[in-house]
Write a structure and sequence with these properties.
There is one protein chain. With 273 residues, this protein is mainly alpha-helical. The chain has a single domain, classed as Methane Monooxygenase Hydroxylase, Chain G, domain 1 (Up-down Bundle). The chain is built from 14 helices and no strands. Helix 4 runs parallel beside helix 9, helix 11 packs across helix 14 and helix 12 packs antiparallel against helix 13. The longest helix has 32 residues.
Length: 273
């Protein structure tokens, strides 16, 4: 008997692969506004990115809860997964970069003021990680439920602040970073915190889980920085120095984003070693 004869083929009363994944809805969610060949590429690139970001948000939130509960080891798997998610997001730019300026110009005007700048899920990732600029809520004011979700994230300590509070629970002096973390206030670079991380790095055997947590955070930010850089390169390659569809300065705005550090003390501590 052949494999096809042994395989289940009658799905009139059973759930199939397409049913489980709701493929009819998923594959029907692409609605190009023009006949431009590359508009479908543009839509799929951004839709799949949003799906990966949905997973990243879930995993970062779970990692925060684990660190808060002093269950640090299980959080490592989730943080490693988030880094790999951003590796996937980075690879997607390679596909989008096959679109030329001529290709994009065929449908760019139909995008109106829509822009990746308005991705609330990307904003959620930034807020969860620790880049907390409340002014970035404004593009979402027309969706109160999204603003409520983002404000809920801002009301809790960020991923980095959970790590800071963990350091304090382990007896390390993290200075003014601790009360700011408890209050979920935006993080301000702190010399005492750099010193605390230096203590961890100078004796990794004694602080092994804190040491590994630090490296998982750096790994995440490393991939996120690459994502930002690839974003800049892709945009400049396709539209040059034109303004973004959402009204930003385009490449200029994206280049400024390259300067943002999520975990500044973890980068400073390398100079101390």
């Amino acid at each position: 008997m052949s494999e096809i004869e042994e395989a289940e083929t009658d799905f009139r009363a059973r759930m199939s692969y397409g049913d489980y994944l709701r493929l009819s809805e998923l594959l029907g969610a692409q609605s190009p506004l023009t006949n431009a060949h590359d508009e479908l590429l543009f839509i799929i690139q951004h839709q799949t990115s949003e799906l990966w970001m949905k997973l990243a948000i879930r995993e970062i939130r779970a990692a925060c809860a684990m660190i808060r509960a002093d269950s640090v080891q299980p959080a490592f798997k989730l943080l490693a997964r988030v880094a790999r998610i951003f590796e996937q997001l980075n690879s997607a730019w390679d596909v989008l970069r096959t679109m030329t300026p001529s290709d994009y110009s065929e449908f760019r005007d139909r995008l109106g003021q829509s822009s990746g700048f308005q991705s609330w899920q990307y904003r959620a990732i930034e807020f969860l990680a620790g880049n907390r600029n409340a002014a970035m809520l404004r593009p979402h004011e027309h969706h109160p439920e999204i603003v409520a979700e983002l404000n809920a994230i801002l009301a809790e300590p960020s991923l980095y602040q959970e790590a800071i509070l963990l350091l304090r629970r382990r007896g390390l002096d993290v200075g003014d970073a601790a009360p700011r973390a408890e209050a979920a206030e935006p993080h301000v670079e702190c010399e005492a915190l750099t010193t605390a991380w230096a203590e961890v790095y100078r004796d990794p055997a004694h602080h092994w889980d804190l040491y590994e947590l630090a490296e998982k955070l750096i790994d995440f930010e490393d991939y996120l920085r690459r994502w930002r850089f690839n974003h800049v390169t892709t945009v400049e390659r396709i539209i040059g120095l034109k303004r973004g569809t959402g009204g930003t300065s385009g490449v200029g705005y994206l280049k400024r984003m390259l300067e943002i550090e999520l975990f500044p003390e973890l980068w400073r501590v390398r100079t101390r070693m």
